[in-house]
Amino acid sequence: MNRKHVKWLLSELSALVERSVISRETAEKISDYYGKAVESGSGRRIALAVFGAFGSLLIGAGAILLIAHNWDSMSRPARAALAIAPLVISNLIGLWIILTDRRSTAWQEGAATGICLSLAASIALVGQTYHIGGDLGGFLFAWMILSIPLLYTFRAVVPFLIYLAGITGWAGYQAGRDLPTWFFWMLVAAAAPRLVMDARSNMYSARVAWPMWLLMPCVGFGLGFTLDYDCSATWIVAFSSLLALFYLSGRVLYDREQPAILRPFQTGGAIAITIFSFLLSFRFIWQELGHAALSADGLRDAAVAAVLLILCCMLAPFSVRRSGPAALLYGCAPAVAVASWSAHMSLEFRALAVAMNNLYIFALGIGTMISALRQSSLVLLNASMVVLASLILIRFFDLEIGLVARGIAFMAIGAAFLAANIVMARRFRAGGRK
């Protein structure tokens, strides 16, 4: 039973006791059983996944070292046989796991990771044995294409992470070499059904959360490979819209009561928006950008930015309906980007772009602090303090301010951190929270 169902069951226990459907003792036993089972089960599955993948990695590395010891003295057929032997063995183990229906996380992760790594080793060793020409891009492409069936054959996380990292590395290696950008997005789309199926089963499982954490930078890099970066600087609007799209999607998809790490789109989107806003708050970013109007080569950038911006506008009402107007604090990042871009394109208001992003970062810090106080969340409170402190410190180093003033500012920020945490700790004790 996933966490959402357990949460619903536990919320119904008090009503069942009041209606004499079950006794209070039974309700307590149910609460203890499902609460402990979910907590321990989640941690156990993560540990089994990590150790299973790590064990496969060690076995594969050991086998490669043993083979490498006598590699030069072997004939080509012997080298080829040894090169594909780990792949054959790992596939036989995987077939046995499928036929015997072993659904243990350790078995699934270990077998899938073993096949994935042995596949890479076999491709490299066979190519080296027969002097097959190629480069890193060709190796990564072949490896990732052959790894796609693993995503659907085994319920494993590590091969999924390897796949996302691999296609991102391949696209990065091929960037600037006339790579059709649609090909990268096809590779991303090939993994999407697996993620959707897992999310429908349990949105808050590690099998969904970790790939989504890696999917965000993967898509971000993909957008970077897609854009032309012409002198109109529309990439600023495109990236801010993509990050806001992640954040607003997280607001719609996830329950606020779930841990932040299990809400990757919302948490990661908020962090990325903050970092991107900090980047746009520096003057040198805008000084390096051109001011020319859209060129023919930049029309694709403008089209991509417009599509992402429209998607954000369409998703914003659903996000507000789901979690309230607070979603617009980070969700309005594209509006700030559009205003900054418009100010930058006007020669009379260049400095306004920097000022707007500084004010927006300040609003993010204050808004997050208000949310932290309403939710009595130490994590959010410290996050808001980090944002505000970073803004102040960066501007201190960015401007010509004396050492004495900087020292006083550091002490004041540190005192504010301590005072805020002390006040929040007292509120926790007064409310009886941990």
Concise structural overview:
With 434 residues, the chain is mainly α. It is 80% helix and 0% strand.
Structural summary, described in words:
- The chain is mainly α.
- Among the domains are: 1-40, no CATH class; 227-368, no CATH class.
- The protein is built from 17 helices and no strands.
- It starts with a helix and ends with a helix.
- The mean pLDDT is 80.
Highlighted features:
single chain, 434 residues, mainly alpha, 17 helices, globular
List low-pLDDT spans: none
Counting DSSP E segments of at least 2 residues, the number of strands comes to: 0
What is the chain-wise order of helices and strands? HHHHHHHHHHHHHHHHH
Describe the main β-sheet briefly. Answer: none
| General shape | globular
- Structural category is mainly alpha
**Which strand-content bin applies to the residues?**
under 5%
Termini, distance in Å? 26 Å
Helix content percent band? over 70%
What is the arithmetic mean of pLDDT? 80
Radius of gyration, taken over Cα atoms and rounded to an integer in Å: 26 Å
Number of helices: 17
